[in-house]
Amino acid sequence: MMERFYLIVGHVGRLELLVPQGARLVQLRIKDQPEPEVRRQIARARDFCAVHDAQLVVNDYWQAALDLNCNFVHLGQEDMETADFAALRRRGVRFGLSTHDEAELERALSHDAAYVALGPVYPTLLKKMKWGPQGLERVTRWKQMAGKTPLVAIGGLTPERLPGVFAAGADSAAVVTDIQQAADPEARTREWAEACRA
User: Fold this and answer.
1) Which whole-number Å values give the CA distances from 125 to 24, 95, 147, 152, 181, in the listed order?
2) Rounded to whole angstroms, how far apart are CA atoms 170 and 142?
3) Tens digit of each residue's pLDDT (9 = 90 or more) over 152-177
4) CA angle, corner 179, sides to 173 and 182, nearest 5?
5) Which of 75, 101, 129, 194 is deepest in the core (most CB within 10 A)?
6) Which structural domains are found in the chain, ordered by start?
7) For 188, what's the count of Cα atoms within 13 Å in the CB-facing half-sphere?
8) How many Cα neighbours within 13 Å face the side chain of 44?
9) Residue 162 to residue 153: CA distance in whole angstroms
10) At 128, is the pLDDT very low, low, confident or very high (cuts 50, 70, 90)?
C-alpha cells in the first residue's frame, strides 16, 4: 500500500528534520553535488530512515543506491536511458518513474514500476517545466491507464488541494515547495501528514 504523503527534500539535514514529523515516505533529491557528498548524504539518510521506520527513495543516483544497499529509487525519463533495470531488479530495488505524457506513461508501465508520477498537476514554482499544468482530469485518466500501479501526483500541491487530487484518483501526493517554503516546515509537515490521513 502506497503512503498517501510523499515528502521530497533536497538535503539529508532537511530529511532528518522532517521525517520525525510524520513523513513515512521520503525522497532524497540531491542536485549539483560532488559524488562523495551525494553518497555521504544517501548513506546518512538510509540509516536515519531505518531508525525512524520511513521508506527512503533515492532520486536519480541508482548506482549509488545499489552500492549503499538502498531499496527504492526514483528515476526521471532521462535517467531511464542509463539505468540498469536488470541490476535493480536482481537486487530487489523498487523504482518509481516520472511521466508527463501518454508515451512516457506507457514506457514507465512497461518497466513494471512500483509507482508512476504525474506532474505538474498545478502550476509549480520550483523548476522550469516544459509541460504545463496537467490538471485533475489528467490525473483521473492516468489512474485509469495505470490500473493497479500506484499513481503519485506532484506539482503545486497544498493540503487544501488534497481532497480533489485524491478524489481524481491519485494514490499519493508528493510535496516539495509547499513545505520547503513554509515559515515553519516542521509544523507544515505535520499538517500534511494529518491531511493525508484524513
Assistant:
1) 25, 26, 30, 19, 10
2) 9
3) 999 999 999 999 999 999 999 999 99
4) 150
5) 75
6) 5-197 (3.20.20.70)
7) 17
8) 14
9) 10
10) low
